[in-house]
Each structure stands twice: as C-alpha cells, then as structure tokens.
C-alpha cells in the first residue's frame, strides 16, 4: 500500500488570487483540503488608533484607504456616525449627491469583483471589459472630486464640492451605456458551460449558518435571507427610491454572481431616479469650523458593496473621537472561509475565496 | 466651487495671524487651546456642542477662565464667557433632549424629565425576562440610547454573560441571532466590550455592554453562541488585552505574533516613536 | 456549447470596436479641473495662520514665519514652508482651509524621483511649480 501523508501548503501573502496580502495555510491530503487557517494582519495600519488622535475632518482621508474599492461608503459611515450624534439636518442636495456617488461606487466595486473573479476562474476578457466601464466611473469621480480612488469627498454636514457643469448629463450617458454592457457581460459569461461547472453547487452554506457567522451583503442574500440595509434600515434618502433586492436560493457561487450582477442593475436604477429628482440648494449645512460631537455613543450601519459596514463611535464631547471602531464587512465575511474549505478541492479554493469578495484593506484596517 | 468654499470658510471665522508670538512653529497636537480660544461665534452652527472639555493631557478646558498669558487674552476671556453661557444653555437644552448616560441624566435634569421613550416598555420587558431567568444581578443597568435611534442598551455583568448570551439568542421573544458588532473600549478606569445584536425574526436590535476591570480583564467568550464572534474576540484580545475565557483559539490576529503590548490601550507606548 | 459560442461572439464583436486605451506616456493625459496634484505656494499671500499645518492629517507641512519687516504692517510673513511629499496624501484639506488661497493644488502628478531627498519640497520649489494650477488660466 502506498503511504500517504498530509501536506502543509502555504498560499502565501504574495499571491495573485488572494486579492491582497492574505495568507492561507492549508493542510491537504492529495487534492482535498482538510483544514484551512487564514492569517490576516499584513495590512494593519492602525486606523482605529490613529482616529483617536485626529479630528473628524482629518479622519476622512484615512477611511478612504480602508476599503479602497468603495471609498465613498467608508467616508459616509464616519460622517454619518458623527452626524447621528450631533443631530445635524442635512440639505437635500447633499443627501442626493451622496446617494449618487455611493451607488456609482457600488457599481465600480462590483465591476472590479466581476473582472477579478472571472480572472481567477480563468477568463481573461471580462476583466478588461469590466475595467473599461469602470474607467468611465472613475473619470466621473475625477471630474467631481479630483481623485480616482481616494476621494475625501464627504464632510460632516454635507459634501465638499457641488457638481461641475455637465456632470449629470455624463452620468445619464453612463447609465444607458452601462445597461447595454451588462447585457454583453451576461452573454459572455452567464451561459458559459465552463463557468457554470465551476460555480454551481460550490461553496454552499445555509441561511442559518450565514446568520450565525454574521455574514452580510451578498453573502447573506445568496443564501436566501432577504435583508438589505438600504431597504430595511434606510439611511440617507434611500427611502425615496424604488429598487429591488436580489435574493439567491442555494447559497452557492453562481447565486452570488447573479445577485451581484442584478445589484449593478438596481444601482443603475437608483442613480437614474436620483438624477431625475435632483434638487437645488446648498451642499453643506451650517456646521461650526471646529466640529465637536456631543457626548455619547452610537452605532450606525449601512450597506457597502461588501456587506454591512458599521461605525461605533464613542465621543467624550471633544473634537476628536474617544473610540472609533469600524465594523468591517470583509472581516466578518472571511470567518466562514475555514468552514467552507473543509473537504473541497484545492482548485475550488480560489473560486470560493473570490466569491466572498474581500478587500484586505478592510479586513485589516 | 472653490470660491463658494472660501466664502463659507470665511463666514465662520478667520484667523488673521492671531497667533501669540511664542508659537511660530507648526504643530498639531497642543493647539487645541487656540482652537477653543478664538471661537466667539461657534454657536452659530446647527449643532448643540456641549463643551464638556475634560482636562486631558494635551487639551485645556477653556470654559474656565484661563490665565491670560498671551496677546489674545481679552478675546479668550470674552470667548470663554460666551462659551460658558452657551454651555449652560446647551446643558439645559441637552436635558430636554435626554441624556444618554444614566448617571448623568439625573444630574442634568433641571427643568423637566424628557418624555418617555417609545422603546421603554420593550426595554423593561427584556430586563424582566433576563432578570427572571438569571437573577437580579445579571442586568446591572439598562437605558435607552436616544441619538442612536432609541436603541435599548443593557449592562450585563460579566459573571452571567455567557448564560445571558444564550438566553438572548434562544428565548422566543428575544431571538437575537445576528451579531452585528463586537467592540472593545478602554475607558481609563475599566474596560468594556460592547455587543450590538439583531434579531432577524423580530427585526429589533439591542446593545449590550459588559464591564470588566483593567488589570487582568477577562470576559467569557460567546463563540459557542454566535460563531461570528470568533475573530472579533481575537481582535479585541490582540488590541486591548481582554482575555476571553473559553475561546477555542485565542491568539493575536492583526499584530505580529511576537508583539508585546496591546496597542489600542490608552496607556500604550509605541516603542519606535519618532522613527 | 451554446454558451461558449455566445461568449465567442461577444469577444469577436469587441475586436472591431474602437480602442479605449490611452497612449500614455507618449501622449499627455489631460486631468480635469479639480484634480489634486502637488501644491503650488504663493508666499505673498500667506499670512502664517498655520491652519494648513494644523489640519494636515499626516503632519507633512512645516512652516515658520517671522515678523513683517515693515514696522507699519502687522502680522507675519512666511520664512520657510516645506511639504514632505513622502507622506503627503494629496487630500486637499490644506487648500480647503487656507483663507487667502496661498496654497492651491495644481494638476501636476508626475513627480517620481530617483532619490528621497528630492521629495522634500521647499518653498522655492512650490512657488516655481506654477503650471496647471487649479482654477488658473492653464
């Protein structure tokens, strides 16, 4: 009889498919994984500790860099936490601008997921096609706030800049362009037999497990739990827009793919309605120059492209927070990885890890 | 757009070189004193800023009258007076709005107590359930966190935390099966771990705070109740040093494995300061 | 089989479309009006209020001032003004708080250097950096 033993394989921090500096130590028996231990912390920059030493306006550039693929949502959560405690009334135009940029950012983030996920699975063209569309969104943001990835756009009391000339028409043109391209992506990918074989029935988990592990976002909805913070706990002006929330059935990777594609479509719908209803007015409320948040604590949550992004703010009445904790969705979503990988093939590891959609800047903060 | 911004900034206030002669270098940390001095029209904002400046190591409470040591003395005194008046007004307004800390609420209530929160009966019912099952001392305190959407908040003692967690998850009316947030906070005299729980069935939320002391802080782990608490407890252990008894694998997660010290503590000294 | 054929159809259709890539660096890329590049500093307008240094999230601005040499005028004039470009994150907060627009962003972002010393921008360099200023004529 052949003697077999288990091997320890290190899917190291430098790896093209781990979406960042993420290390996974797996014990494999032949081709089957028996145990997987994730090691995180390679990108830990101490944002929460830094935040205790910076004023609220100064923290916003740091939050851009946590979840760098959807920086607008990160900006928003900090500003929203402070505004909840301060109980500031925001002008309508600022709220609508925030919704437009956050939804555009959601589309951009899902496009990155789409491109890189299919690249992990083995397809090269969707990556380039997705990034062609994403360039249009980044150009829109470049026109609006001067940067393509680290926006530093939201302030307590509103947003920093108003829209430049012709920006809303460009957004409208983008929406119609994107709708056609979505059809193209579905033609390219969704019927492809290789893709279906690689994603159907892989990485399945039940709704109860999803709730137990504290998953959120598409990971929760693909398993069948109908929970979306934009609809169920509306923040900003989301209660004025009509949109559907896609919910999956099986909890496998194919459901996650369809959910995310459908979410892009619904985000386009929201942006269209917001641009149609765009009001006039100022973009910044009257807040004092030195912002002091009254004493208290608050936990606010919102739906970022990765899941439930939350911010727990403890304030002692000064102009710097006492404790600022971010509930980062990728950190929670990643906990289910060892459970999902048990008994799987090594080949499915990359597909399952990609399906969770993590951003390491957010896991480590 | 820059013009509008400039105007807006100018509206609030300008600092026409109002720095005292001694400070020509730029520095950030110790300048809070000045930010509070030259604030005569801070009250203009739509913000109720309760200027409870607690004296900290690098900020100075400006609501007391300071020793005028610099040329901005008159301005400082006037600003301090205006600030004190506003602080008193804000305190009275704050009492009407409802304090969010139970001890303080009774001290601040000068005029009339705030109207009862709509979530108060819910909170009372939950406190009764938990106290009924686990005894009086399980729930140390309970309050409603008003700015945060009237979130009911419980203070549970750490000795009964594990059973309380099981009760919160399995009881019919409570059914908190989704762990939204697990955070550790270092108040200087004690440490706390804050949990935010949510019930998918009944769609209600609760906040739980478990206190522990600063030397050898320990709290029972709830990984067996909510699997999502696993890595979060490791993170709290890593950054704050709170041990979770009963955790399956308590080791450092974000810092390197051989790191000494717990960075998020208030008295943490980074060893490579000034690099 | 059908799915593969449909996918192939999409790929072949894209072959005939116009290319979207830019031929950078052979052709310069025009950045929009609000782009945040390295700063331009105008010493005449600076009143040494220290707001930019105070608001900088990474503490990369250091400045010193001295009393105005003209005894009739009050206030200060700027003596040295440095931006440590190694840690500047181009967040634009300094230009937001400057009351006199002495510091503005330009659209220059191609600043790679061969040694770290060149990354410490002093007042002279920042003043000479006057092309493509945001809101300016270029």
Automatic annotation (TrEMBL), chain A:
It catalyses: a quinone + NADH + 5 H(+)(in) = a quinol + NAD(+) + 4 H(+)(out). Its EC number is 7.1.1.-. Belongs to the complex I 49 kDa subunit family. GO terms for molecular function: NAD binding; NADH dehydrogenase (quinone) (non-electrogenic) activity; quinone binding. Residues 120-290, 291-364 form the NADH-quinone oxidoreductase subunit D domain. Keywords: Cell membrane, Membrane, NAD, Quinone, Translocase, Transport. It is found in: Cell membrane. It comes from the Bacteria. It holds the Pfam family Complex1_49kDa. This is NADH-quinone oxidoreductase subunit D. NDH-1 shuttles electrons from NADH, via FMN and iron-sulfur (Fe-S) centers, to quinones in the respiratory chain. The immediate electron acceptor for the enzyme in this species is believed to be a menaquinone. Couples the redox reaction to proton translocation (for every two electrons transferred, four hydrogen ions are translocated across the cytoplasmic membrane), and thus conserves the redox energy in a proton gradient. GO terms for cellular component: plasma membrane. NDH-1 is composed of 14 different subunits. Subunits NuoB, C, D, E, F, and G constitute the peripheral sector of the complex. It is a peripheral membrane protein.
UniProtKB/TrEMBL annotation, chain B:
Belongs to the complex I 30 kDa subunit family. One of its GO terms (molecular function) is NADH dehydrogenase (ubiquinone) activity. It is found in: Cell membrane. Residues 156-269 form the NADH:ubiquinone oxidoreductase 30kDa subunit domain. InterPro entries: NADH_DH_suC, NADH_quin_OxRdtase_su_C/D-like, NADH_UbQ_OxRdtase_30kDa_su, NADH_UbQ_OxRdtase_CS. It is a peripheral membrane protein. It comes from Marinithermofilum abyssi. Gene3D superfamilies: NADH:ubiquinone oxidoreductase, 30kDa subunit. PANTHER family: NADH DEHYDROGENASE [UBIQUINONE] IRON-SULFUR PROTEIN 3, MITOCHONDRIAL, NADH DEHYDROGENASE UBIQUINONE IRON-SULFUR PROTEIN 3. The keyword Membrane applies. This is NADH-quinone oxidoreductase subunit C. The gene is nuoC. It is an enzyme of class 7 (translocase). NDH-1 shuttles electrons from NADH, via FMN and iron-sulfur (Fe-S) centers, to quinones in the respiratory chain. The immediate electron acceptor for the enzyme in this species is believed to be a menaquinone. Couples the redox reaction to proton translocation (for every two electrons transferred, four hydrogen ions are translocated across the cytoplasmic membrane), and thus conserves the redox energy in a proton gradient.
TrEMBL record, chain C:
Binds 2 [4Fe-4S] clusters per subunit. Its cofactor is [4Fe-4S] cluster. GO terms for molecular function: 4 iron, 4 sulfur cluster binding; iron ion binding; NADH dehydrogenase (quinone) (non-electrogenic) activity; quinone binding. InterPro entries: 4Fe4S_Fe-S-bd, 4Fe4S_Fe_S_CS, NADH_quinone_OxRdtase_chainI. NDH-1 is composed of 14 different subunits. Subunits NuoA, H, J, K, L, M, N constitute the membrane sector of the complex. Belongs to the complex I 23 kDa subunit family. This is NADH-quinone oxidoreductase subunit I. It comes from Marinithermofilum abyssi. The lineage of its organism: Bacteria, Bacillati, Bacillota, Bacilli, Bacillales.
């Amino acid at each position: 009889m052949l003697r077999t033993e288990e091997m320890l394989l290190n899917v190291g921090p430098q790896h093209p498919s781990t979406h960042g500096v993420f290390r996974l130590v797996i014990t494999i028996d032949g081709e089957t994984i028996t145990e997987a231990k994730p090691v995180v912390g390679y990108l830990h920059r101490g944002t929460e500790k830094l935040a205790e030493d910076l004023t609220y306006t100064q923290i916003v550039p740091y939050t851009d860099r946590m979840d760098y693929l959807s920086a607008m949502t990160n900006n928003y959560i900090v500003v929203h936490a402070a505004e909840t405690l301060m109980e500031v009334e925001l002008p309508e135009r600022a709220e609508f601008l925030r919704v437009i940029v956050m939804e555009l950012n959601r589309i951009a983030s899902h496009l990155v997921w789409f491109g890189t996920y299919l690249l992990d699975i083995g397809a090269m063209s969707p990556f380039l096609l997705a990034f062609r569309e994403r360039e249009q969104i980044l150009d829109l943001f470049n026109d609006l706030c001067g940067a393509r990835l680290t926006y530093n756009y939201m302030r307590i009391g509103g947003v920093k800049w108003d829209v430049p000339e012709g920006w809303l028409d460009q957004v409208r043109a983008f929406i119609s362009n994107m709708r056609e391209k979505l059809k193209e992506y579905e033609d390219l990918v969704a019927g492809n037999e290789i893709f279906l074989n690689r994603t159907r029935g892989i990485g399945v988990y039940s709704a109860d497990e999803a709730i137990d592990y504290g998953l959120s976002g598409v990971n929760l909805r693909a398993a069948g739990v109908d929970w979306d913070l934009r609809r169920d706990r509306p923040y900003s002006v989301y209660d004025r827009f009509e949109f559907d929330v896609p919910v999956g059935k099986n909890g496998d990777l194919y459901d996650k793919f369809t959910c995310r594609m459908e979410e892009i479509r619904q985000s386009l719908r929201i942006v269209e309605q917001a641009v149609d209803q765009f009001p006039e007015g100022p973009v910044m409320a009257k807040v004092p120059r030195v912002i002091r948040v009254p004493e208290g604590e608050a936990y606010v949550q919102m739906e970022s492209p990765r899941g439930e992004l939350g911010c727990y703010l403890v304030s002692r009445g000064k102009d710097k927070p006492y404790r600022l904790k971010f509930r980062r969705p990728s950190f929670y979503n990643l906990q289910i990885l060892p459970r999902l990988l048990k008994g799987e093939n090594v080949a499915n590891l990359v597909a399952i890890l990609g399906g969770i959609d993590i951003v390491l800047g957010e896991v480590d903060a | 757009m820059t013009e509008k911004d400039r105007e807006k900034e100018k509206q609030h206030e300008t600092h026409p070189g109002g720095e005292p002669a001694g400070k020509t270098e730029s520095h950030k940390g110790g300048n809070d004193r000045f930010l509070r001095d030259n604030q005569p029209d801070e009250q203009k904002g739509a913000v109720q800023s309760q200027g409870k400046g607690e004296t900290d190591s690098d900020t100075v409470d400006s609501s007391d009258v300071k020793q005028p040591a610099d040329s901005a003395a008159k301005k400082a005194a006037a600003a301090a007076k205006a600030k004190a008046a506003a602080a008193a007004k804000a305190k009275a307004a704050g009492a009407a709005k409802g304090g969010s800390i139970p001890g303080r609420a009774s001290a601040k209530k000068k005029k009339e107590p705030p109207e009862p929160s709509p979530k108060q009966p819910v909170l009372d019912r939950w406190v009764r359930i938990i106290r009924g099952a686990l005894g009086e001392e399980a729930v140390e305190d309970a309050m409603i966190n008003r700015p945060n959407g009237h979130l009911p908040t419980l203070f549970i003692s750490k000795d009964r935390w594990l059973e309380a967690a099981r009760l919160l998850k399995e009881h019919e009316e409570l059914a908190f099966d989704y762990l939204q947030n697990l955070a550790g906070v270092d108040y200087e005299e004690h440490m706390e771990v804050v949990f935010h729980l949510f019930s998918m069935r009944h769609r209600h939320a609760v906040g739980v705070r478990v206190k522990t002391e600063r030397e050898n802080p320990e709290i029972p782990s709830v990984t067996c109740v909510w699997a999502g608490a696993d890595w979060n407890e490791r993170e709290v252990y890593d950054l704050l040093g709170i041990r979770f008894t009963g955790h399956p694998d308590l080791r450092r997660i974000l810092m390197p494995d051989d790191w000494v010290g717990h960075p998020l503590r208030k008295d943490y000294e980074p060893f490579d300061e000034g690099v | 089989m059908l799915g593969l054929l449909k996918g192939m159809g999409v790929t072949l259709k894209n072959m005939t479309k116009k290319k979207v890539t830019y031929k950078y660096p052979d052709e310069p890329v025009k950045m929009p009006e609000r782009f945040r590049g390295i700063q331009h500093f105008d010493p005449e307008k600076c009143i040494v209020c220290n707001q930019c240094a105070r608001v900088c999230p990474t503490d990369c601005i250091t400045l010193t001032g001295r009393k105005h040499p003209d005894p009739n005028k009050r206030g200060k004039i700027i003596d040295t003004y440095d931006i440590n470009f190694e840690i500047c994150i181009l967040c634009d907060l300094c230009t937001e708080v400057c009351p006199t627009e002495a510091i503005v962003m330009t659209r220059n972002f191609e600043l790679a250097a061969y040694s770290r010393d060149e990354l410490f921008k002093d007042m002279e360099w920042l003043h000479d950096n006057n092309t493509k200023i945001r809101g300016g004529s270029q």
